[in-house]
Design brief:
Blueprint: H1 3-35, H2 39-70
């Protein structure tokens, strides 16, 4: 094989790869959409859990102060 034949083969390989790029790009965007489809619901549930954790911590502190204060 000569350098010229390698270059020709490389150009043909790049053409095939370039032809696949639009489909690959579409698949990437599709997977991204699927991965982030539930972000709003996850954030909503995260806020609920955080608020409940804050409430429980405040209740714990309040109980400790009540228990310690009356002893």
């Amino acid at each position: 094989m000569t350098i010229c034949s390698l270059a020709y083969h490389s150009a043909r390989a790049n053409e095939a790869t370039d032809a696949e790029l639009p489909a690959l790009e579409e698949e990437i965007f599709h997977q991204f959409e699927l991965a982030h489809a539930n972000d709003v619901e996850i954030a909503r549930l995260d806020n609920i859990c955080r608020d409940e954790l804050k409430r429980l911590r405040a209740e714990e502190v309040s109980l400790r102060m009540t228990t310690t204060g009356s002893a």
